[in-house]
Amino acid sequence: MMKDVLVIGQGISGTFLTWWLEQKSLSFAVIDEERPSTASRAAAGLINPVTGRRIVKTWMIDELLSFAENAYASIGGELQISPLKPARVIDFFPTAQMRLAFLKRLEEDPQYLELPADEKAWNAQFRYDLGYGMITHCYLADLPGLLPAWRRHLLQQNVLDQSPFDPASLIIEKEQILYRDITARHIIFCDGIESFDSPYFSRLPFAPNKGEALILDIPDWSPGPAAPLSDPSLTPAVPIFKKGMTLAPWKDGLFWVGSSYEWSFSDPNPTEAFLQRTEALLKDWLKPSFRVLDHIASVRPATLERRPFAGFHPLHPRVGILNGMGTKGCSLAPYFAHQLVEHIVNGKAIRPDADVRRFTKILSR
Predict the structure, then answer these.
(1) Are residues 222 and 111 in the same domain?
(2) Is the domain of 106 the same as that of 173?
(3) pLDDT (tens digit, 9 = 90+) per residue, 205-223?
(4) Mean pLDDT across the stretch 70-78?
């Protein structure tokens, strides 16, 4: 079987990489063992234009937002789903200092920040004393809908192998790669934490980061106030709630709450400590009763410099990678998957601060 590209992994990076390959009429095969605990499948799907306690704009966000809108609309049109919804974050202030920090940032750069007209608007659902600010121009990617829908598409096209990838079966030659019955021009790893131990990319400065989340049923949840729309034809923004942790709508009318950010951990699985801590936070914050239906955990493929890895190995130009998205996969993956495909097809340069060849020296050891 001859293919242009063999793709390893079908998380958010592998999904958008194969989408763009298909748009360019490149042939491909995908190897992905279905596992529910991968970082993409455990993520809330929030695209937030600001980050951190200093509430600063995230890297490249102005460009990424407009690109994501078009990319999700395109793949959604193919699949007949709506995988990206406008959202806004209701950011409850946990301390007076955080309220002051928000107000200061709002004064300096109000592009993505607002204050509510009525700070008591969410009193029926939450306990809060210090008010809240709003982060606008957010999006919620429907990962529980998009990833399975694209997987079904790959199965229908007969290009998905759901067996585990076997590194021992991979042969890299000068002009091609061989894997079992597949011959391809390129192989690209979109396999998340599996690349930490890759013979080709293990030297990259990955910084594994563990996250945990709970899936909740909130039977008595009542919708709060709708955000005013400047254009009545626009889709109302989905409210996402934040106070120490994030509470977001999930599939089937359920809610996702999380996530932790653990840089040092010995157990990649869900922990009792997170469950107890999060239940206590929710009981203090959330007025309606809730039931915990599931407890999930995953390890994110984050990087030390918080920039993704995209491109081809300096010593093995047939071997590529699209990885290291950390917590920003929903905004970064569509953009850098497109850059990687454009590089393959037209020889266009990948952004230098994302191109994996910035690590040529350590990858050449």
Answers:
(1) yes
(2) no
(3) 999 999 999 999 999 998 7
(4) 97
The SS3 call for residue 157 is coil
pLDDT in tens, 133-153: 999 999 999 999 999 999 999
How many CB atoms are located within 10 Å of the residue 74 CB?
A: 14
Assess whether pLDDT exceeds 70 at residue 226.
no
> b/e per residue, 317-328, with b = 16+ CB within 10 A?
ebbbbbbbbbbb
The pair of three-digit structure tokens given for residue 341, joined into one six-digit string: 């495909």
Rounded to the nearest angstrom, the gap between the alpha carbon of residue 264 and the centroid of all alpha carbons in its chain is: 21
Q: Residue 113 in contact with residue 106, Cβ under 8 Å?
A: yes
Structure tokens at 216: 């909740």
Evaluate whether residue 191 is within a structural domain.
yes
CB 58 within 8 Å of CB 50: yes
Q: At 97, is the secondary structure helix, strand, or coil? A: helix
Tell whether pTM > 0.85.
yes
Element (H, E) at 74: helix 61-79
Domain that holds residue 187: 1-45+142-206+301-365
Neighbour tally for 186: CB within 10 Å: 20
Q: Are residues 278 and 311 in the same domain?
A: no
Name the domain boundary from 269, 284, 300: 300
Count of domains observed in the chain: 2
Greatest alpha-carbon pair distance for the chain in Å reads 65
Q: Which helix (H) or strand (E) holds 161?
A: strand 160-161
| Alpha-carbon span 310 to 317, nearest angstrom | 13
215: domain CATH number is 3.30.9.10
